[in-house]
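Journal club prep — side note

Before the paper discussion, L.F. wants everyone to see what a predicted structure for a comparable chain looks like in token form. Sequence:
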Amino acid sequence: MTNPAQLVLHWADVTPDAPAIVSTELTMTYAELADSVRRMAARLRKDGIRPGSVVAIRARPELEALLLLALLHEGAVSLHGSEAVMRAYADEIDFLLGDRPRSIRVAARTIDVGAEFMVSLGSVNARVEAAELGDSDPCRIVFSSGTTGSPKGVEFTVASLLARTASARTNWMPRDPFMCLLGLDTVSGFQTFAWTVMNGRPYFVPGDGPANLALLREHGIRSIKTSPARLENLVDAAEAVSVGLGDLAVEVVEVAGSLLTPSVARRCESTLGCTPLYLYGSTEVGTVTRGIFDPSAPNAVGTVVDGSEVQVVDEVGQPAPAGDLGAIRYRAAFTPDHYWRVGPDANNSFRDGWFYPGDLGVLDADGRLLISGRADDLVNAGGAKFNLAELDLWMRELDLFTDCASFQFRDAAGATSIGIAFQSRHPVDPAIVLERVRGLLPNLEIRALLRVDCIPRNHLGKVVRTSLAELINGDKQ
């Protein structure tokens, strides 16, 4: 196998003037992309980066995209160097490429890729050959959400990169131009970038709601993939400037990462003209189900896509009858059997070729998968059994909060207690909140009600409940 970076550079010869990387700040053609990547690769080679080097990138999105390709060209293994990743894997990282401040100390050799680095590229010999790579050679590490602990790395080899980007095109890149509103730190953002530049298409760099809206309008983007939180940001931006249905070319809106509320789905329909589609899966395996959002069953995430297998199993690992609640497991081609540079899997997520994401759910008689939340979110507080994710979904439809999330914590006696954190532009009467919750769960006692500046979420918009639990020693109401 030759280096996948050569598939990108090939387009500089075929369509040199075609747009390769597009953001609200710049448009780079394939000729410019190829020249920049070769020069960066030569400079990084001079700085000591070799095939197999593990290199973290902390840079603005457009620059990270170029550095990612330059590292692929050199046969190095790249990863997005978030602070959580840098803290957890500092000893595993050989180099850090950065153009922005960091608040943690690392042992890795740091290469400043700021203005001086960019200027130096003008004197670099760009005639360098790409490193030869085999199918099993690693080239990128993408990390899980980290909502239940340290983020865990999933290794992309050359073979799995090509296979998973091809399946992405089949399962969730339906119409061109396509834009993923999730960044290169996510598996969806990385696969979108890899597929587009290896196939001579433009990669649209995601930003905030107004920036994404501007790209959609200017480039006639027909399909997007996003998270519920980023979809809401996009809809907010569209509503703020009174964008009408005729102003956008969007035909498909796909949502992944967490469950969508019916109210956001309705706003998407009225603003973008599309009923959202659910995509369910994980960083570890990819997309395994797809289906149209159903407001009467907002936790129904569709049916199994081609090339994947999904089961709901009982406590002994046997497939459960249709309609029975159980643990979800799934598998597809190139399902890994371990996490990158991690010891024994404490959660036993990989078993007998299956991946267990930690979600509970039901497969109905029609083959639809209904998500009932994470097993970690299933609680029994004072005899009230329920799932925190289902409570969140219900609360967000109350029209009491700008945003909210439930969480569990240990009280002074060591018992499991439930709290609610919320954002609101207006005063909120705690008595009304408690009354509404009792209407859903009569036996549930809310022991903490916290007003916060923002609900902590990861890059996919999933609530980080552990961060809320840590606040319990502070603002109790």
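L.F.'s comment for the group: Residues 30-46 form the longest helix (17 residues). Keep this in mind when we get to the figures.
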